[in-house]
Amino acid sequence: xxVKQLRYFVxxxxxxxxxxxxRTLYVAxxxxxxxxxQLERKMEIPLFDRNRRSVKLTPAGHVLYTQATNLxxxxxxxxxxxxxxxxxYQGLINIxxxxxxxxxxxxxxxxTFQAKYPGVTVNxxxxxxxxxxxxxxxxxxxxxxxxxxxxxxxxxxGHRILTxxxxxxxxxxxVERTSQLAREWEGKTIPIRNLSEEAFIVQNRHESxxxxxxxxxxxxxxxxSPRIVNTPNSVQTILLLVxxxxxxxxxxxxxxxxxxxxxxxISIDLQKGHHDNEIVAAWKESNQNSSLQHMLDIIxxxxxxI
Length: 306
Known about the structure:
5-stranded mixed beta sheet; 10 helices; single chain; alpha/beta; 13 strands; Arc Repressor Mutant, subunit A; D-Maltodextrin-Binding Protein, domain 2; 4-stranded mixed beta sheet; 3 domains
């Protein structure tokens, strides 16, 4: 039996009339009679007792009707789910984020998306910068929210990586609050060249190649090479080491929310170059996930620098 035969059978079973079934199906009565006859021959079972005056289901027909209605309902659900997945209304989207300034606007984006597309599951996790680009290249993530510095124009196999500006974060000098730098420059703007003799703490290049290279480039552009004394794996460890007076760090201003009371964030004058931390949404142009486009539509419709 096929789906068409089952639909014709259910129509006759519910109307107990070949004529009425044909009307509901918008086909000729002869087409209905033909499909029912083929179904009975295939099953080698009479499904209807019929004469000139009436049509009734046989006991076997009653069983088939119950099973067929359930089967057709499930078939329709599968068909709808498949169509919704193709259209991006149902499915899965994997997102990675850096976890700094994006927390200012990301919850609103996710709430809006969930309200419009409740059938799409959003998997979202925080990664360091290096992991984000690697996961995007390996197709483990559909969308990443990270700093623009160091994002390649092309990923593996030559697939273009597209970006959209979301917001810009200011960089700050982070020092222990009782240090000489804090005493001299709290509430002021310190020229970056004043830090040429300081000990820098920078996140491990393996964990955050963009962040590591950015710190180097900022210092080099301003006339000196930084003296890096420690390269921990996490930003949290950087904050701990700075609080322990083991060095200074250049970090995004949004980390103030995670910093303890013993740390000071001091504005810096970079003198040369534009070294703000631009946060972008990045994705592969070749990504075929329809749900991704719906997420991008929401992101692109938001005002920048929320």
